[in-house]
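Render this sequence as a predicted structure.
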Amino acid sequence: MTRRLMLKRFLTDESGATAVEYGLIATLIGVAIIGGASATGTAISNLWGGNESAINEVLTR
């Protein structure tokens, strides 16, 4: 009888599912942060690249 109760308790226990859900949410947030940082880095690189070209042009006159 105790095995039945243990099996029933195991099948109805959802505490592990909550941890998995939080893990998935944290992973998605991490992916979003990495994507945003990558896009920001590219934009900043393009901005400074344009400034570098303009500065070099002025200095070589």
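Summary. The chain has a mean pLDDT of 86. Residues 51 and 57 are 10 Å apart (CA to CA).
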